[in-house]
Amino acid sequence: MNAKKYKKYRIVVILMVVIMALLFQGCGKQKTKVSVRVAVIDTGISTNAISKEHIAEGKNYVDTKLSTEDTYGHGTAVASVILKEAKNTQIVPLISNVFENGKIKQVDNDTLAQMIRDAVDIYHCRVINLSAGLVLDKESVRRAVEYAEKKNVLIIASAGNDYAENGAVRYYPAAYESVLAVGALNKDGTEIAAFSQRGEWVDVYTVGEQVEIKTLSGNTSVGDGTSYSAAKVTGQAALKIENDAEITVDELKKMLSN
Fold this sequence. Notes:
The chain has helices spanning about 5-30, 75-85, 110-120, 140-150, 165, 225-245, 250-255, and strands at about 35-40, 60, 90-95, 95-100, 105, 125-130, 155-160, 180-185, 205, 210-215, 220-225. It is α/β, with parallel strands linked by helices. Helix 2 packs parallel to helix 6 (about 225-245) and helix 3 (about 110-120) runs parallel beside helix 4 (about 140-150). The radius of gyration is 23 Å and the shape is globular.
């Protein structure tokens, strides 16, 4: 190879090295996709309705001897709405309510607070869905919510469905500042649903009427409620985290509120 050809060959090689370096640098800046774990603190999940590949190991906090199989249907419906928004999500069923002998049996406030902490520390969830609420501000629950925020875990909670009967009531944890409170719009998305709580403490509204859900048997039905609005936003949050594992709680709240 003569000097002229060698010089031209060296230039080509250098250009290729530079291009490869730029490509690798660009890859390094790409957002990392992850399989997002979402805690659903609710009545459990029916394996007849939700594929086992989407159900991670959870716990029954009402009775630890029991499984996380849903006995009522609410948790299953919520999980189905989440998965419709973000199909790759791993749902962690943490049971706070069990339907037993015609009645709902539920955990106390301190246990609920522990469930929130366990969702963060034991089950490593990035999002916690709580489609339920307390009328009173309980210190143990408030501190657990604050702990989740410090750990960069977003809690999304339903605002409540009692506006017609008691429009002034605020439900917790939705009413806590660090929690994303979700209200419901009517089926057309044109106005707030008649049943939905509202006010400056509610962060975002989305359709909560005639929402497609799965029943315990796996059949498709429709339901109304801020539970399903919250589930929709939870799915949207999971999708954003899936596309950007480094996203913060504050960034998520701003994006979802907008």
